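User: C-alpha cells for both sequences below?

Assistant:
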Amino acid sequence: MTSTHESSPEEAARAANVGSTPIVRRSRTAHYNCAPPPLQEEMKTTLANETKGRYVGPVHPSQFLDDYLLRPNSTPTPLSKEELETLKTASEAKSEPEMYKSFKEVLERFAEGMKFVDTSSHPATDASDFGLKPDFCLYENVGEVPKAADFSAAELCIELKPSVSYDPFKDFDLKKSKGGSNDPFETDTVIANKTRGQITSYAIRQFNYQHRFFAFSVVVFGNHARLLRWDRGGAVVSTGFDYVKNSNLLVDFLWRFSHLPRVDRGHDPTVSPAALLSDEEAQTVREVLNLKAGTALFEFKVPHKHGYKSFYGPHFPYPVRSLIGRSTRTVPVCHLVGKKPGKKAFLKEYWRPAGVRGEVEVYEHLKKCDVPHIAPLWCGGDVPHGGTRTHERIKPKDSSPVMHLCLHRLVLDFVGCRLTEFKCTKELARAVLHAMTAHWQAYKRARILHRDVSVDNIRIDEDGNGVMIDWELAIFLDDKSDNNLSRRHDRTGTWQFISAALLMKPGHLHVLQDDIESFVHVLGWTALSYLPSPMGLNERTHLVSSLYDDSFMNETGQEQGGGTKAVYFKSGDYPPKEFTLTEPSPILELIRTLASPFQARYGEPPSEEDKKTFEFLNALVLKGQIDEKILYTQPVHRHKLGMGRLSSSEWFLSIIQDALKYPDWPVEDGGADRLIAIIGGTTRQRQLATKRIRTESQLLSASSGPLKRSNTSPPPTPQDKRTRLDDNSDGGITRG
C-alpha cells in the first residue's frame, strides 16, 4: 500500500483531471516529421481522442450563420440550373479528386475578394505539418497567392470526402436539444475519428502560424456539408445539410465569410506586422533580439494601465500541439524608447479559464509580499475581446469539459536563459535553490502555491542566479473559490515533472509536497538528459523515457503514470545508481539526498509491529538503557522523519545550501547540448513521435537565443566541512 501525505484542504488545491486533456507543451514542444504515413494517420486519431467532448452542437446552419457571421449589405446571385447540376456532379463523385474541379468551379465566385486555391496536391512544406494539405484553402487576394497549403495565410480550410461514412459527427433532434447538446455527438468509428483529427489539425495549424482568436472551416461528405467554428475551448458544429438541395446555405456562408473584416474572421487585432518601423528601427530590434537579418517582426500590443504598450518581436517560435488548453506561447521582445529599441523583454500569452486569476495578478501579489527570485512584471492583462465562445452553447446544468477561456498577455522585464543552458552543475544547483526559495517564500508570505514546477519555468539570469517564472497555474491558498475553480478539466503541470502521486491518482489533491517533488524531478531529468555519462545512448534514452514519460490509459479513459518514479523513490535509488557521470560532480549525490524523504511518501508505512517495537525501544532509551541512535534505524522513526521533512521546503533548501559549499564542484561541466532526444507534444504524441524527432538545437529559433553571459563560472564558495549526505539524524536520512 502506498503511503501519501496530504496537507489540509485549506492549504491545498485540487489537481486538474489528469486524464481529461493533453498537457500543454510550451517551448519544449518539438516538430514531427511528415513521414511515414502511418504516423500521420495515428496523429489524426490521437487528436480526435484528445478533443472528445469538445465539439458542441449540432447547430442549425441558419442559426450558425446568424450567430457567427455578419450579413453584408450585398447578396449573392443564386446558383443557376447549370451550376446546380455541376455541383450535383461533385456531390455524386466516387472519389475526392473527382469532386475538386466541379466544387471549385461553382463556388469560388462566392468567395469574393479571395483566392479559392486547390491545395489537395500541394502539401504544406514545413516538416512539422506532416505534409498537411486541405483540399481547398481560401487566401486574401493580396500579393502573390501560394499554391501550396500555407497555414500562415489560410483564411479558411475546406475538406472534401466522397461519402457520409467519413462524417465525424451525428445529428439528432434539434427540437429536443433546444439548439444544442452537451452530449458527445462524435461518430466513434476509425474513419470518422481520422477525419475529425484531420480537420482539427488544420485549425491547430492556423492558430499556430497566425495570431487568432478563432477560425472557421467547412467539411463536405458526399452531398452533405458542415460548418465549424473553432476556438481554444473547442468547436461549434452545424448540422449536416444537403449543399445541393440547400445550396443557399453554403453559398451564404462563403459570401458572408469573404465580406467579413479580418477581426470577424478570427484575427487578433492586437498583433500585426510591424509595418510602422523604419528599416533602421527594424534592424536595431533584430540586433537587440539576436535575430537573423530579414526576420519578420510583429507589433504586440499588451494591456498597460488604461491602454496598450507596444512591443516588437518575431512570431512565436514554438508550435502548440493541441487545440485545447492553455496554449502558452512565449517570445523575446523589445519596446521602443523614443525611436530607439530598449532592452530585451519576455512576452507571454496563454488562455486562462474565466474566473481564475490571471498571472498578472499573481505577480503583483508576489511583489507586494516581497517574494525574492521572481521576474519583474512590466505590464499585462486580458486581451480585449479575446475570449472563447464555444462554451456559450453549453447547457448550464450539464457538465462539460468546454470552458470559457480568456487570452491573457503579459511582459516580464527579464529574459535570461533556459535552466538547461547551465554552464556547470554548480550553477544548475544554485538556480534550483533560488527557484525553490521563491516557491517557498510565495507559499509562506503570499499564500500561493505554484503547481507547475518544471525545467521550462526556471530561468537563469546573467549573473547565474535562478528566477522562478510561469505562475499561471498558481492558486491563492486562502481563497476557497479559487480552489473550487481549480478543479477544471485541463491538466495541471508538465508531465515529466509532475509528482508520482498526482500521476498515479488523477484528480488527487495537489499539495506542497507535490511541488517539492517536482524540483527533484527537474534536477533528475536535467542530469539524465544533459550531463555526459558512460551509459550507452539507447540505455539512457530508455531510462529517461520510462522514468519521466511513462503513461497508460486506465479503465475510465484517464491517463495515468508515475509508477516508475514511485518505484525508484521507494527503493532509495533516485536517480538510478547505474547512471554515473563522465566528470564527477556532487550533483548526483545531492539529487539522491533530496529524493530520500520520498521513501516515506511512497514506501510502505510502518506496521503495527514496527510501532510496538519502536515504543519498546523508545522506553529503553528514556530509561537510559540503550543509545538513542538505535531508534534512527527503526521504520517508525525513518517514516516520521521523512514525512516531517516533506512538510516544508526548509530541509531541502538547507541541503542544497550545504552542498553548494563543497569544494569539489567542477568548473565547466555544463550540458552544452542535449545528449539524448527528448520528445515534445502531448503524452500520446510523444509516444508516436519517438523515432521522428528533431533535436532541440534544430528547433531553436533565432528569436529565442540565450542571454549573453560572461564565461566565468560561479565564484568559489568558502571551503566548509562537507556535510554527510547519508546522515540519518535530523540532518539527513539514509537511503535504504
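Moving on to the next sequence.
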Amino acid sequence: MSAAPPPPPESTGGSDKVLAAAQHIVKSLATSKNAADDMIRILSGFDNRLSSITTDLFPTPDLSSTESSEISSAAAFDAAEQLIQLWDATPEALVFEAPEDDVAQYLAAVDVAVEHLARGASGAGRAGVAVQLAMARLEEELRQHMARHAVPLDPTGLCFSLRRFSLGSFEDLDTSSDFDAATPHSLDATPETARGGPLGNPFDEHVFDPVRPEAVDDLRAIADRMACAGYGRELADAYCSIRRDLQDEYLSVLGVERLSIDEVQRVEWKQLNDKMKKWVQGVKTVVRVLLAGERRLCDQVLAVSDELKEECFVESTKGCIMQILNFGDAVAVCPRSPEKLSRILDMYEALAEVIPEMKDLCLGSSGDGVISDAQAILDRLGDAVRGTLFEFGKVLQKESSRRATMAGEIHPMTRYVMNYLRLLVVYSETLDLLLEYDGDNHSSVERPEDQDQDPEHLESMTPLGRHLLKLMCYLEANLEDKSKLYEDAALECIFSMNNLLYIVQKVKDSELGKILGDHWVRRRSGKIRQYSKSYLRISWTKTLSYLRDDVHGSGSGSGSGHSSSRMSIKEKFKNFNLAFEEIYRNQTIWKVPDPQLREELKISISENVIPAYRAFLGRYGSQVDGGRSSGKYIKYTPEDLEGQLSDLFEGSPGSANHSRRRT
C-alpha cells in the first residue's frame, strides 16, 4: 500500500497551523450551508497569530453578503489549491490509500476547485490548473483502485453441468474406415452427446461482483467529480480501458481463446471439439455472470450519468463479446462435417439463449450494434447446422463401400447413422425451427420410398420428422444395396435382418419412435419376419428335401426293389448329412448379435428340421441300421442335431462335438 502524503515541512510564522486550518476549512465547507459563518467560527478557534487572517477576510460587519461570499470562496479555493498541489507533489502516494479523513478532505478540495472554476470567479486560471491536476490524479486513482480491488474469477465456482443425453455411450458409433473414411467428410471421429439443456439459469443464485463492494463508493466518488468537472470523456476512457483488461483476464481463465478464422480452421477436430465445449460454457458465463456483473458495476460507479453508463457498459464489454462471437463466426464458416453438428447445435442454442439477456443488459440504443452482430452470428450458425445436416444426407446417399461385413452382422454405417439420428432428436425444438422454412423438407413426403407411410401421419410430421424420414430412406436404400454384395442369399437375409432389427430397436427406444410413428415401426417389423421366412426357405429347403419319403411308402418290399430302396435311403441320409454339415460349417460363423432374434431363428430351424429328421429316422432307420457302415449314414440322433443347431449364428466356428453314433 502506498503511503499517505508526508506532513508539510515546519516553517516560521505558524504556516503549519495555517495549512491545518485550511484543510479543516475545506472539509467544513463541503458540508456547511453557511460557509462564511462556519469559517469565522473555525478560525476563531485558532491562536492570535491567525487574527490578522480573520481581520483581512472579514474587515467590517457591514460588507454585503455577496462580497462576504466571494471572500470566503476565494479563501476556500486557496486552501483547496494548496491541498491539490500538495498531493500532486507526491505522485507515488495514493489518496484512496490514505486515512478516510484525508480522502474526504481531498474530495472536498476537488469540489471547491471545480465549483470555483465553474463560477468563473477571479483566479479562474489557477482554478483550471488545479482542476486539471486533480482530474489527472483522480483518473489514475480510478485505474489503481479498480485494479487493486478487482475480484479474481474462480472458474470452479462457475462451472455448471451440461445435460448429457445418454445413448449408451457414443463409443457405439463405429470408427472403422468402412463408412466414408476417404472423403473430406470423414466420420472416423466419434460425435459426443453433451449439450446445454433448458435447465434454467444455473447462475440464478450466483452473483459475481467484479470489484469488491467496499471500493464501489470510492470509485463512484471519483466518477462523480470527473463527470461534474466536464471530464466525462477521460472518465469513460479510463473506465473502459481497465475493465477491458480485466475482462481479457477473465476470458483467459474461462479458456476462451482469441483465434482467427484461419486458426480455427487449422485446428484438429479433437482440439476444436474441446474449444467448442468451452465456448458453450464460456458464452453463458460471460453473459450471465461477467456482463451482469459489469452492468451492476456501471450502474453503481457511473450513476451520475445515464448516458455515460450505457456508453461505458457497451464500450467496455464490446471486446469481450466480440471475442466470443468471432469464434462462433469462425466455426460457422468451417468446412461442413457431420461430427461437428451436435457441437454447432450446442453453440447455436447457447447463443440463442443469451441474446435476449444481452438485450436486457444493453438498456439503450448504444448496444444495438453488438446485438445485431450477435444475431448475425446466430444466423450463420443456423446456416451451418442446416448445411451440415444436408451434407450428412449426401454422405449417406453416396456412401458406397463395396466390402460386405463378413458374418452378416450390423454394418458400421447403420450404427453410426442410427445413433446420429437419435442425437438429432435431442435438438428437435431447435432443428424444427431451423428446418421449418426449408422447402427441401416437404419434398420428402412425395418420395417413392415413403409411399408405404401413413399419409395422415406424414402430413402431421414436423420439419425435423420429415427430414429424419428422408435420412432413414437413404439408410435403408444403402443397406439394400450392400446386401446385394453377398453371394449367399441366406447370408443376405441375415444381414438385412440384423441391420433392420437394429434400426427398429433404436427407433423404438428413443423419441424417434414418436416422430416416425407406429405405422413405420410395424412395416419394418413385418420386413424382418419376411427376411426370416426367406432365410429358412433358402437355407433349409434343399436339406429338408432329403428327408421326404414320397417314393418309399412304408419301407417294406423284397428282392431287387427292396435293395434299390435301401440304397436310395442311404443316399438320402448321406446327402442330408453333407448338406447339414455345410450349413453348420458356414452358419456358425455367421453372427446375429441380438439374443432374441438369434434364439427365434434357432427355434424356427429346430421346429422345421428336428421333427422331419426324427420322422424320417423312425421310418427308415431300421433299413440302414445294423448293416455294415451304418454309422456312415446315420451320423446323428435328433438330440445331436439340436445340439449342433444351438451353435448357429454365434460368430465363431462350431465345435461339432455333438455327434453321438447310434449303437
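User: Anything stand out in the second?

Assistant: DSSP finds 26 helices and no strands in the chain.
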